[in-house]
Amino acid sequence: xxAPTVLVTGATxxxxxxxxxxxxxxxxxxxxxxxxxxRDIDGAETVVADLxxxxxxxxxxxxxxxxxxxxxxxxxxxxxxxxFADLAREAGVQRLVLxxxxxxxxxxxxxxxxxxxxxxxxxxxxxxxxxxxxPNLYLQGLFGMAATIAQxxxxxxxxxxxxxxxxxxxxxxxxxxxxxxxxxxxxxxxLTGPRAVSHHEIARALSDVTGRxxxxxxxxxxxxxxxxxxxxxxxxxxxxxxxxxxxxxxxxSEVHSSVADLTGRPARDLTDFARDHAAVFAAAPAExxxxxxxxx
Length: 296
Known about the structure:
Layout: E1 5-8, H1 16-25, E2 29-34, E3 45-48, H2 54-61, E4 66-69, H3 77-90, E5 95-99, H4 111-125, E6 130-135, H5 146-149, E7 153-156, E8 162-163, H6 168-180, E9 188-191, E10 197-198, H7 199-210, E11 215-218, H8 221-228, H9 234-248, H10 258-263, H11 270-276
Helix pairs in contact: 1-6, 2-3, 3-4, 7-11, 8-9
């Protein structure tokens, strides 16, 4: 009997690129979806498709048993994911694992959280077997701040608030456990790191592994927005400001045990992330933005 095949959307992204090998380790077949031809992915069948192109999606969905749904940050991300979920159901896909966001609610002041809640609601409504993963702020979002970190600082409008930020490798491994296991239908898992940390603590952890003095600066929201202007579109800048206001209010500090419950081992700590990626922050990289995936 052939192993079930999982279609991984966003297979070359931060989470998807870690999910592909995690699925292979668990004995699942993987169809890795990418928008660009010529990007072969080790251990996976690569398919070229775009979440905005239903024809290419029909081919990508043909014959798969389950899907992992994650989309690039876009103003129409909710509509795109809703359309994909409908196509997956029509194609006879048996399971869908949806990557959402910590604290997604329909009445949130944060647009990203409202959008994710809209997709969650639709997936529940269409009756497709599904599991929702709600990760908190990505520690890998710091990669986008590497240029200023290499100069000895980074900034955001968050003050001393703490966030139970998560390593994206733990998101991928949690998703793999859900896709390879049973008993997860209709469940929602909030994914966090093992503790809530402040950005000052992040700065200290990066200082320790690089041997350099790295500081965190609490910057006003308007200055933060100005730093991003011209790098990101206005809707994304405004969304990030809303995200950080959410963090600053202390609304993302709860710690959940889902990573350990699903994977059988503790979530990676900030110190693990810093140690494993010290080289990223040791010298100024080329062409990095100040935020990267900070929308999470």
